[in-house]
Amino acid sequence: MTTLENRPSTATPTRSAARRRTPVTWLRGGGLGNLVFLLPLLLVFGLFSWWPIIRAAVMSVQTTNLVTAPVFVGWANFSHVLHDPLLGTAIVNTIWFAVLALIFGYPLPLIMAVLMSEVRKAKGLYSALAYLPVVVPPVVSVLLWKFFYDGSATGVFNTILGWVGIPPQPWLQNAGTAMPSLVLEATWAAAGGTVIIYLAALLSVPPELYDAAEVDGASVWGKIWHVTLPQLRGILFVTLILQIIGTAQVFLEPYLFTGGGPNHATLTVLLLIYQYAFQNSTGGDYGSATALSIMLAVVLGILSVLYFRLTKRWSV
Amino acid sequence: MKSSLKAIAAATVLFAAVGTLSGCASSSTSGSSAHGKTTIVVAIDAGLKKPAQDAFNAQVKLFEKANPTITVKSREYTWTGTTFSAELAGGTLPDVFTIPFTDGRSLIEQKQVADISSLVKALPYASKFNPAVVKNGEDASGNIQAVPIAAYGQALHYNRTLFTKAGLDPDKPPTTWAEVRSDAKAIADKTGEAGYATMTQSNTGGWILTSAAYALGGRAETKSGKKFTATVDTKPFKKALTDLKTMRWTDDSMGGNFLYDWNGINQDFAAGKIGMYISGGGNYGSLVSQNAIKPADYGETVVPLEGKDAGALGGGTLAVVSAKADDAAKKASVKWIDFYYMSTLITKSDAVRDAKTQAASQQPVGAPQVPVFDQKTYKETQDWIKSYVNVPVDQMKPYVSQEFDQAIIPEPASQTQALYGALDPVVQAVLTDKNANVDQLLSQANTSIQQILDK
């Protein structure tokens, strides 16, 4: 039995050893070598990751055109952003994109992965086909889909719809259909990557669990619900939070497909940041752009912490 | 200790390697002078077809031969409203690049382009510029810091083949807005293509709406003392927008794409998908060099003017030098501007040499423009290069024969691009929402433009 008296006797030498660590022992222990090896990474990371963040934070309280000396303006940029009527539109649109992406884009890769894991032949071919859109450069994908979404009767999708007697649809050319059209392309482009993650995770599910479920008379759906999903919940949480963060920062699709139109129907928060900074060719409002970026980062940070707190017990 | 020393040695080698690489990179940056040689990076239009690139490279060779101490490198660049600012802020612009008239004064005031006024002043033609044109490149004291290289008035471009297919006479393009509408409907009904199309993205929607409103006697802003007032909530803008709405929803003559930018609409026009659209009068050059338009398809006429004070919205291009350029690079850059852009407008031998090179590369020679100097010099230049003109001049007759009869109205003076940007969603709304309320949209736009002007 370990006595309470014994415990300090084991802890004391450790603490005293720590106290004895001097620059000389650190040097002798290879500390300098470690630091020197770490230095390039710290420099690169600091220069390209942390320095821009610090610059952005500073710029958010300044008015600057990046050429002449900046002027300190306090919270004015934040106030300007919060009073901009387009901010509400951008937030609603971003949430709408996230909801649509969650409804269509989140379950689809899982369904595809489960189905593909059940396939016995040509599994590699299906994986390759699923992953192919990820390999296509995003700009190329968008240009390709722009062609598909041609609103005239001769557009690719409209021609297909014509075969079954459906009249041409406006796709990107209508405020109501533009956002779902963007989500459709985004889902197509991104699903492959998540499918591969799920496929790898499915391999880690012990087969004996399925055997046991089968002995208990579980149907296919029962096996998915009671075995597959609980076993994948950790990875499902991670992909969910990544998807929420990703959709909150959606930029490429609205920028390339519609430029935020028609009539601001696809203006997202990130596109609004871009417009603050770059729409006026003779000098952007970099202060407002960085102020909104910081607000977005704070909101996403809070969301992530909340999400992990709420699901901590369940996801372990 | 030994391992630490080894690590330090390894890291030193690594840093030395990185240093060497960065040294290599800096040795090729613009404006550097090594052994008395200056290297400058100049803009070349993005997306040029092979013959156009060859013509450009031939000019570079000639320039380098005439100026052995200057090396010219080129970088693809085309000004667009929403990318220019990013390039400017990122410092990725070439030493010599071009900007529209709308941006000249702001960039000069903000010192975002180099002050080349003393070098420009020394050019022999510095005092001969068309005053209405050169003021776009002057600072507050009247020094030329940006060189006007081209000027234009808005024109109506039309597809002659679609006109013929629709049973219209391609030699009699529309002369009123009512005829634009009826011809557009005829084209859409008979050919299935868009009879009329308009740009709507990257500030171009506002640009073309403003062009149509100016052709109806409107103005986007007025100035009283130092205060600018937004005036887009007025009859000409309402009529221009209502015409678009009628063509879109009543006539169904505008096709299925309502998210065009400048590149996109040029592409579809060259591909024969658009009957008519408004753009700069000198657009034919881009349609050939970037979009490979069939010359036989092309037709050009003036924008119909109706009402008091109606005029063609003007515009143009300025050549400027990067604010980062050092003295040697500035000097070399002005030499390039003089050689590549200006001497061809004013010196016979250069005009002929340029026309010859362009024609040999099957590039358009003789597309109409508004004179950068005076009308006499312009006509003289056209005479010099007459034998090399390869653009379909007869098909441009409706424009060329009337362009000088039209008043050219300068673009809105304050916050031009932001003003155009605020009108983009208005045009998009009218073209994508059947129930869009023109009055309400313009009233809201007027309020937001006024806020921009009051900043």
From TrEMBL, chain B:
Record-linked Gene3D superfamilies: Periplasmic binding protein-like II
Signal peptide positions on this chain: 1-25
Entry keyword annotation includes Ribosomal protein: no
Alphabetized UniProt keyword annotations: Signal
Taxonomy, superkingdom: Bacteria
UniProt key word Signal: yes
Xref: InterPro entries: Bact_solute-bd_prot1, SBP
PROSITE patterns membership: PROKAR_LIPOPROTEIN
PANTHER family: ARABINOSE-BINDING PROTEIN-RELATED (PTHR43649), SUGAR-BINDING LIPOPROTEIN (PTHR43649:SF16)
Name by which UniProt lists this protein: Sugar ABC transporter substrate-binding protein
Organism: Frondihabitans sucicola
Lineage of producing organism: Bacteria, Bacillati, Actinomycetota, Actinomycetes, Micrococcales
